[in-house]
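Design request, tokens follow.
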């Protein structure tokens, strides 16, 4: 009889295979950023994070905090049941109406996480005679949705719509319904899909389109309405838009947008909504206030764009590789190997700049990177300083050996 492994033994082995050795010289992840900030301030030093997607700097806005505190006082923390069976708070519908109006769609439905919104929506809308076409660099929540769906999953090359069109031409007729999934702003590369062409392809091939706008709301488009606004596509042409409250909207939770009959159906049947608790009233009050603020304080959207453009411009001047990023909220700096990426992250941390490495998980193993989230609250000095630190490090590591020993 074969020996039964304990779960601990199995976990230890799996973690080793996942790259535990990279942590040997210190763990760059899970940094306690609040205490690091306080410690730096106590020493008269500066600490800045480029690792949080607070794109418009609304997470610490006094009005967001006040709205959250007021909701806490009035309603308490929890929603206490699924909204279908436990009833809801009026703030749930206000938020959903506000989101739909802002994005120019008919209706929206909120869930307790953006991740869950993808997983449950993708697996719910497709049946066993259907298929799902996803980009090879899709976020893990899309991949998990595909894995939990009974439909067949077909992967197209990243942002390669010729490839998608080819696959649809070859395979579309084998299925009843087909869903194509793309992201507004890709979270690891900071690039975008050609949305106008995507809409043309999905209509010609009689498919539905789900667009994950997690990183593009507040970031793309003059008013921050996302990729549709950025490229001038009518959002009503997109069958399903997924969004999150955890990024620009300063709290946490996710949402699905679609035509009214679709949302009405989902409201009564979507498993991740029906069988999960409603959004905490504290969270929905914070998100609704952030949504109003981003429409009032539009300077934040302009500032974010200026900051991201400056970051990319300086990075290029310094010879750093920003990959395919278009220069908005997410910009990676690509490195040749994981150890070099770790070393660069440690170097920044030693100078009070937090940017954990993205290695092994979430990106192809041969494309490690430092992934920067820019914010409207970053200062020009902070952006110049971080690029300067990377540029100096790069020139040292590229210097001939004799120069290197003199420099270190
Ligand atoms: C593209 C994309 N979709 C969905 C999510 C999940 O959102 P949340 O973190 O709010 O659950 C993320 C998270 O970063 C994401 O990058």
């Amino acid at each position: 009889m074969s020996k039964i492994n304990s779960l601990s033994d199995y976990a230890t082995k799996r973690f080793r295979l996942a790259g535990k050795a990279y942590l040997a010289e210190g763990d760059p992840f899970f940094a306690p950023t609040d205490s690091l900030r306080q410690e730096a301030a106590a020493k008269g030093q500066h600490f800045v994070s480029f690792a949080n997607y607070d794109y418009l700097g609304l997470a610490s806005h006094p009005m967001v905090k006040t709205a959250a505190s007021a909701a806490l006082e009035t309603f308490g923390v929890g929603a206490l049941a699924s909204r279908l069976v436990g009833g809801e708070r009026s703030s749930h519908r206000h938020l959903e109406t506000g989101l739909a109006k802002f994005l120019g769609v008919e209706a929206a439905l909120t869930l307790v996480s953006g991740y869950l919104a993808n997983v449950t929506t993708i697996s719910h809308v497709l049946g066993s005679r259907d298929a799902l076409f996803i980009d090879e660099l899709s976020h893990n929540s899309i991949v998990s949705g595909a894995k939990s769906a009974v439909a067949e999953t077909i992967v197209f090359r990243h942002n390669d719509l010729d490839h998608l069109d080819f696959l649809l031409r070859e395979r579309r007729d084998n299925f009843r319904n087909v869903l194509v999934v793309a992201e507004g702003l890709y979270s690891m590369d900071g690039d975008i899909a050609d949305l106008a062409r995507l809409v043309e392809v999905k209509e010609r091939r009689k498919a539905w389109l789900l667009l994950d706008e997690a990183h593009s709301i507040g970031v793309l488009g003059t008013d921050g309405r996302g990729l549709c606004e950025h490229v001038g596509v009518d959002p009503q042409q997109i069958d399903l838009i997924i969004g999150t409250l955890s990024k620009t909207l300063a709290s946490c939770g996710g949402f699905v947008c679609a035509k009214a009959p679709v949302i009405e159906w989902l409201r009564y049947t979507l498993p991740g909504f029906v069988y999960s608790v409603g959004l905490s009233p504290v969270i929905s009050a914070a998100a609704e206030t952030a949504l109003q603020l981003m429409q009032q304080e539009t300077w934040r959207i302009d500032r974010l764009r200026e900051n991201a453009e400056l970051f990319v411009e300086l990075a290029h001047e310094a010879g750093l590789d920003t990959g395919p990023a278009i220069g908005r909220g997410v910009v990676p700096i690509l490195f040749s190997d994981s150890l070099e990426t770790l070393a660069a992250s440690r170097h920044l941390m030693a100078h009070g700049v937090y940017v954990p490495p993205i290695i092994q998980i979430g990106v192809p193993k041969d494309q490690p990177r430092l992934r920067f989230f820019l914010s409207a609250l970053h200062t020009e000095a902070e952006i110049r300083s971080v690029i300067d630190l990377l540029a100096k490090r790069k020139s040292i590591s590229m210097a001939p050996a004799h120069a290197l020993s003199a420099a270190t």
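Comment from the thread starter after seeing the answer: thanks! The chain has 17 helices and twelve strands.
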